[in-house]
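Per-residue structure
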Amino acid sequence: LCYEVAKTQPTLTVNSRDLVAGLPQDAELIISTGSIKIEENAKLKIWTSRGLMLKLDSSEKNLGSELELSLPPCEPFNTLNLKLKVFADLPPKKDTLSMEHKLNIQTPWNSEDIISLHFGPPLMSSMHLHTAKERKFIQIIVAGLTSQLLQLNEPELVTSSSVDVAFKSLNPVAGQKLVIGNNVKVSFMWEMELGKEERSGASIKFDFRVKYWPVEADEEVEGEEDDPLQSRKLQRTEERVYTYRCNFDTVDYV
């Protein structure tokens, strides 16, 4: 009799749907063992592409670009599920295009795997220049792209251009919370004050930034039609504050 011995290599996948950059996200590394038995304390090492950090969800350690795991024992043709926390940096960005990151994984069965992860931005923005007689106004509209509610605070508009220009904020510094979610927009406004001798018409480059953090409703609220985001009953889900940035420019302002 002749027998053919077939060997099935383990496979690695990441269960990660709708990942968002600029916010901590949950992901799950799934190891299907194939015909390989994973021995106790077998080492698996993960390192990330630039701008991506991770850790075990159950770990008290800080997020980092490298992670070494001691795997629990697992019999052939079974699966291991490892819950991860991942965070992708959010670069200056005003569009909705996703960003790709990679996990490089060195396995205890002597193979290297590369898994791609795609992160969408939490926000998008657009700029509009308005004119009222001799006065000029800059409006920045920020739209939410995620179901996670975000509170916005401290909008700021600056320029690094050589043009003699200042921006007078017309945004309230206190009052109602600015909360944004999927398909919700908020607007910020500044008056653009050109120097008296400024007639160059050179391009002005704007750097817009606003702080944000995740929030959630602390209880179910019914019948509050005037407060659809329940902004009166929101609480922060973490202490860290993040910054959203994007760049604009204009030449048609004189």
Confidence is low (pLDDT under 50) at residues 219-224. The CA atoms of residues 143 and 185 lie 4 Å apart.
